[in-house]
Amino acid sequence: MTVTIKIRDNGPYVVEGDFILTDASGNEVPILKKALCRCGGSTMKPFCDGTHSKIGFQGANAAVAESESNPGSSTT
Ligand code: FES
Q1: Whose CA is nearest to atom 2 of ligand 1?
Q2: What's the pTM?
Q3: Are 4 and 16 in contact (CB under 8 A)?
Q4: Does residue 75 have its Cβ closer than 6 Å to ligand 1?
């Protein structure tokens, strides 16, 4: 099955479909919500807790090409 990640306007990444979430060490993280924090303000990271609305988070309206967002760097 295909997993779809939707970017909510000024909000979280919403994952549709089944997936496994791991921490940086590869340990599986229980999926409490399918909305992942994009603003950095959640108290229950990596999940969205609605803080984005309280802090007035404004996300990018569209994907930005790497060369525009961070010239001279790589994604690794
Ligand atoms: S995106 Fe919702 S709390 Fe960060």
Answers
A1: 48
A2: 0.80
A3: yes
A4: no
